[in-house]
Design brief:
Elements lengths: L1 H8 L4 E6 L8 H11 L5 E6 L2 E4 L3 H6 L7 E7 L3 H13 L13
Helix pairs in contact: 2-4
């Protein structure tokens, strides 16, 4: 967690706050999607909820945040692709990790 905290201490880190909107919150599957996306970027990524800070590439760390629907998290990143990483991760969260899609109309 020390490295994750360093991301937030970096004054040049790109940051954004986002609200968890999927029904199950930041559970295992959602955390895995977050990590898979985070790992695509050349950036150090951290996530904070209240006082807890975890690395953005740790499924267990993200789950430990216990971020339920309606909770606000802050995503921070530094590195070459920090801006793109934060934007993509915020989009993933605001889209409910793809879990809140309306049912298909098969008729």
């Amino acid at each position: 967690m020390e490295d994750a905290e360093k991301v937030f201490e970096d004054g040049s880190a790109v940051r954004a706050c986002v609200t968890i909107c999927n029904d199950k919150g930041l559970h295992a599957r959602a955390s895995a999607k977050f990590v898979r996306l985070a790992e695509r970027f050349d950036a150090d990524i951290a996530v904070r909820r209240d006082e807890a800070v975890v690395g953005g590439t740790s499924i267990m760390g993200l789950m430990m945040l216990a971020a339920a629907k309606g909770c606000e998290i802050e995503i921070a990143a530094n590195g070459e692709e920090a801006k793109d990483a934060v934007a993509a991760l915020c989009e993933l969260v605001t889209e409910g990790f793809g879990e809140n899609a309306p049912p298909e109309n098969n008729g």
